[in-house]
Amino acid sequence: MRTAAALFRHEVRLALRSGGEMAQGLTFFLLALSLFPLGVGPGPQVLERIGVGLIWVLALFAVTLTLERLYTADAQDGTLDLLATADISLELVAVAKAAAHWLTSGAILILFSPLVCLLLGLPAETYWAVPTVLLLGTPTLTLIGSIGAALLVNSRRGGLLLALIVLPLQIPVLIFGVSAIEGWVSGLGAAPQLMILGAMLLGALALAPIATAAALRLALE
Amino acid sequence: MIHWFANPLRFQRLADALYPYLLAVALLLFVVGLYGGLVLAPMDYQQGDAYRIIFAHVPAAWMALFVYLTIAIASVFSVVWRHPLADLYGRAAAPAGAVFCFLALVTGAIWGKPMWGTWWVWDARLTSMLILFFLYLGYIALHDAFDEPARGARAAAILALVGSVNLPIIKFSVDWWNTLHQPASVLRFDGPTIHGSMLWPLLTLAVAFTFYFYAVVILRMRAAITERRITSLRLQAAAGD
Question: CB contact, 8 Å: A154 with chain B?
Answer without folding.
Answer: yes
